[in-house]
Design a protein that fits this description.
single chain; four-stranded antiparallel β-sheet; two-stranded antiparallel ribbon; 2 helices; elongated
Length: about 130
């Protein structure tokens, strides 16, 4: 699968798209096909190496996604394959698929939206900062 990766710290222009192995959902985890991911100020700090929590290089940034559950790890009963979800994670959202703990996957992303009757993946992945 394709993923945007930080291979060396720098500016957003230094991020690279590369092929990475597809992960499998382990016990208590969910594999999500990412339809949209949030792009926020903390992601800029991560790319620059200035954020307080950094993964070892190389890694994919991205702290929030919305998409479809593709598979469930052992013991996950609160979600189902094909279900629309939104999730937050420390890193990894800038990829075609991401594995997250089922415990941090906040249910369905189906709040009403005037255009479709369901909240879109793009809107679900965006969590705007408010002052």
């Amino acid at each position: 699968m394709r993923a945007v990766r930080v291979v060396r710290f720098g500016e957003p222009e230094d991020l690279v798209v590369t092929e990475v192995p597809v992960a499998a959902a382990g016990p208590g985890e969910v594999l999500i096909e990412v339809h949209a991911c949030g792009v926020n100020f903390p992601d800029l700090l991560v790319a620059r190496g200035e954020y307080q929590i950094l993964a070892p290089l190389p890694f994919s940034p991205g702290k929030e996604v919305a998409g479809i559950v593709r598979s469930l790890g052992e013991g996950v009963t609160s979600l189902a394959p094909g279900q629309r979800v939104a999730a937050q994670m420390e890193n990894g959202g800038y990829a075609e698929q991401v594995v997250v703990s089922a415990g941090i996957t906040p249910g369905t992303a189906s709040r009403p939206s005037p255009s479709t009757g369901r909240r879109s993946s793009t809107r679900s992945a965006a969590r705007p900062a408010r002052s």
